């Protein structure tokens, strides 16, 4: 009966590995995975940011190990999760404060179409076929490549499109909005 209700609090709460070693292990794994994910083609990631994806995966792993007793103490998992939070926040803060660092964290937009012409080298670099590009353009309301002034692969994996008619459409919308705001004289 003692086996059912006896808890070894020392084993549960006191880390089985040194805090410094857990921090170094967590740091190395986080930064290694971040670097690998940063340089994969964007289309593999979709709309989830690199650091978001990395944090979720590492949280799940660290928490799972702490819950399943692969560590001998819950504090081991807490230290690893804290290390992941630390590096995620630190990298985001550095990217916010230093423009040069932001370019490392998030790649600049890659032009895929310029003035109706596909940039084949950039398409190959991003592993996007011509058919896939046309499919993405159609989803944005573009029927012909000649309608596209600029199309970019953004750092989050989405494609942004500026059409040749975008400027005239925007000016029409602004004119309509201004006329609605103007008082009507009767």
From TrEMBL:
Keyword Heme set for record: no
- Residues in the signal sequence: none
Which residue ranges run through the membrane?
A: 22-40, 47-67, 73-94
Membrane topology per the entry is: Multi-pass membrane protein
The subcellular localization recorded is: Cell membrane
Fetch the InterPro entries from UniProt.
DUF421, UPF0702_alpha/beta_dom_sf
Q: Which residues form the YetF C-terminal domain?
A: 97-171
The record's annotation in PANTHER family points to: UPF0702 TRANSMEMBRANE PROTEIN YCAP
Give the protein's recorded name.
DUF421 domain-containing protein
Q: Which organism is it from?
A: Floridaenema aerugineum BLCC-F46
